[in-house]
Design a protein that fits this description.
This protein is of the alpha/beta class. It has 2 domains: about 15-105 and about 185-274, Rossmann fold (3-Layer(aba) Sandwich); about 115-185, no CATH class. It is built from 10 helices and 10 strands. The chain has helices at about 65-70, 100-105, 120-130, 140-150, 150-155, 170-180, 200-210, 225-230, 255-260, 265-270; strands at about 25-35, 35-50, 50-55, 80-90, 90, 105-110, 185-190, 215-220, 235-240, 245-250. The protein has a 6-stranded mixed β-sheet, with helices on both faces. Helix 7 (about 200-210) links the parallel strand 7 (about 185-190) and strand 8 (about 215-220). Helix 6 packs parallel to helix 7 (about 200-210). The relative contact order is 0.20.
């Protein structure tokens, strides 16, 4: 029974002053468009190192657009453009010298729906290191990544089986292992539990808490309880004029959920809209 499980220990209480934390990303006046339609307007906040930052808000407020600005994945969409500044370890990722391919080698991405490749479990995890030219002990990389994703014990005897044969929760942890195999600095997670059952969701949440010791994690979620359980800091977005996403409030998750500074935040968190 899920109710009998120990909930992941909250991490939000560890943060009192975000300004004192080391930053991995700094967003300053970030705005984004798809063609003539503006998706984000003037987003400004910092994402700290080795913490979990949640992005919450109702559908259509630009959460996925925002997280995909951090690895420039939106660049692959025709008509997309961004203005403002996003720095990653003090380097402007939208500057003329920025290399988005190199950037993505340091930033892993986990999507809403598990998307293992139609390959074996082993080859799914080994895919990234191989295309990056890794020539060391691949078995060690695969085993280490699967262990960090808390999947090794479940798949160690079926590394040659298709990743598509795993359960939904296992597939999502396989995708996390695949992202970890290239030794990223950051993990971006866009609704990683929305397609999973409660038990699989619990395992992913517990994994997120564990991974935050070694990685900076940004998670988009519609689930308020999930944000309160796993994140240190939370950014609340809302679609303002012309359905453009704007930042309403950002701060320690405990503060945002217990004493929000903006009445719109309180209304959303308590379910009065959204």
């Amino acid at each position: 029974m899920v109710s009998a499980m120990r909930a992941p220990e909250p991490v939000a209480e560890r943060v009192s002053d975000p300004a004192k934390l080391e930053r991995v990303f700094e967003l300053r006046g970030l705005s984004a468009w798809y063609g003539a339609a503006q998706a984000l307007r003037n987003i400004t906040f910092d994402i700290p190192k080795n913490r979990v930052t949640a992005i919450i808000g109702p559908s259509g407020c630009g959460k996925s657009t925002l997280i995909r600005c951090l690895d420039r994945m939106n660049d692959l969409i025709p008509g997309f453009r961004a203005e403002g500044h996003v720095t990653y370890h003090d380097e402007d990722i939208y500057g003329p010298a920025a290399d988005p391919v190199l950037l993505r080698r340091h930033i892993g991405m986990v999507f809403q729906k598990p998307n293992p490749f139609p390959k074996s479990v082993f080859d799914n995890v080994a895919f990234g290191p191989r295309i990056n030219g890794y020539t060391g002990n691949m078995h060690e990389v695969v085993e280490g990544s699967l262990r960090r994703a808390v999947l090794w014990d479940e798949v160690k005897d079926k590394l040659g089986a298709s990743g598509l044969a795993l359960s939904g929760g296992q597939q999502q942890r396989l995708c996390i292992a695949r992202a970890l195999a290239v030794e990223p600095d950051v993990l971006l997670m866009d609704e990683p539990c929305s397609a999973l059952d409660p038990i699989a969701t619990y395992r992913i949440e517990e994994l997120i808490t564990d991974l935050a010791r070694d990685y900076s994690i940004v998670i988009v979620t519609h689930n308020m309880q999930q944000a309160s359980r796993v994140s240190d800091l939370t950014a609340f977005l809302l679609a303002g004029e012309e359905r453009t996403g704007e930042l309403v409030e950002f701060g320690p998750t405990r503060d945002l959920f217990t004493r929000p500074a903006d009445e719109r935040t309180e209304a959303y968190i308590t379910g009065r809209f959204g």
